[in-house]
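Consider the record:
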Amino acid sequence: MAINIGINGFGRIGRLVLRVALTRKDINVVAVNDPFIAPDYASYMFKYDSTHGQYNGDVKTDGDNLVIDGHKIAVFGEKDPAAIPWGKSGVDYVIESTGVFTKLDGAQKHIDGGAKKVIITAPSADAPMFVVGVNEDKYNGETIVSNASCTTNCLAPLAKVVNDTFGIEEGLMTTVHSITATQKTVDGPSHKDWRGGRTASGNIIPSSTGAAKAVGKVIPELNGKLTGMSLRVPTVDVSVVDLTVRLKKSATYEEISAAIKKASEGELKGILGYTEDAVVSTDFLGSNLSSIFDQKAGILLSPTFVKLISWYDNEFGYSTRVVDLLEHADSVPTFTKSHLATIEDYTANYVYNKYISTTTDTVSKYESVEDVEIDVNADLINEGDLTVSYVYIKHGSASQMACFIEINKNVLALLKSGAPEFLVNLLEAVDFDKPVSLRPQPVNSEGIGALVDSMAPVLRVDSGIMGNIDITFTPKVKLQKDSLKEILINVPKKDSSRLLKGSEKPMQELVSWLSKATRVKFQNLETKTFTSDLICISKNGRIRLVGDNILDDASATTLVTQVCRALA
């Protein structure tokens, strides 16, 4: 299923993100928001670009829509992100490219407007930052993230290779950076940065940058070891990083170059480039790489003191990484660590007690791991720190107040491929010819969170559920099939009346979404019992969907979100 995205801010990065996104089959741009650009002007600005050339395709408008190669994109003009109708547009991810809403509280407004997740195209003071090729593997389902800066995206891959191979004691970086939109065409007021107010096209302007320090956020080992500055120069695009470092391990310049070249052809291919040609800045215009190491430009003073040069298209390369990060984020299951570890987030200190169990019928019926049915349940309890871990059972239901694990050999492979070390160690000594109970030490809510995080990707289900709701996913094959055979949602009776108030907007939105997602029309809306061949929402609060290929995992997650929103 395609990822629906919206773009907030149709400036340099916003427009280039759209160009990149249109080349990806798994991405569907459904909306753009910019309060300063009308649809006809958005069409003009997208089609004609002084730096990257005219868009090679058909661009026009249709009312309040931008139409590109026949693909219709809604254009909104809201100043308040919370007022943008992302939810009604079906937006999954918002690309926040205004440069204004770079903190969590500002980006959260997009979530309030109905979006599921936000990627900020700038450094953030409080949102987690990710650089593709460097630390995207640490992404853990966070709702709001930053793609860092274009300079950090250039510097971090280079610093990673050098640090991994030779070690970095400390270093200084200078980025010789092209003009950006915040600079002045003629001398003008710039109270926070007097030099920044001088004519961009006629000066080399020293400026500050947090790009080098930000590397320490994506490579913790380098935290506090790098800092830097910027020189703004009168070129329209393409910048260059000058990294000077003191190494822990002695090396020749040739050895350093060889390590970078190897990485560019291996684990960082498509991110880090390598050239030995006599290049200049315009040679990299339109490059989709984050960083291109210039082997001929660097110098070495001693075996532990070296200067390295790396180029980057600060517009197009960065915009490509934004889309790459989006695709990666969408491929990662949503985990529950933050919900479990942050008790303060819930009224009356509510926390989640979650367990996963194999049902009696499926364990007795099937002999292979591929056919095991998994129940994912979430019960809301008022207990402070939890003493209950995941429970894997063969018979009966889980004990909710004891640290109790019961397992059989059919799920051993699943557990050992993703469980924490303490659990794996317990499993090693077990005779799985018989059902067995393991009783490790009690763990607190943070420990539960770690266990949830480790198991979620193994089971290929989304257990990040907000609300007092039981959900059963029954995967068809190997617990990795996109299609679901059955989804059952039970809402407690005390919440049923709120869910079934058909006159309320959340319920109408839920019914509308279900109709669209399943291509099923609901009947008897006025009786507050909604039925169809595949779906039943009854007065006792049960929603049941039965059949093959009903919803994929992403749509099932959306269903859960919609139900929780209706209950909020």
Summary: The chain has four domains: 3-122, 150-327, 333-480, 482-568. The first strand starts at residue 3 and ends at 8. The domain at 482-568 is CATH 3.30.1370 (Ribosomal Protein S8; Chain: A, domain 1).
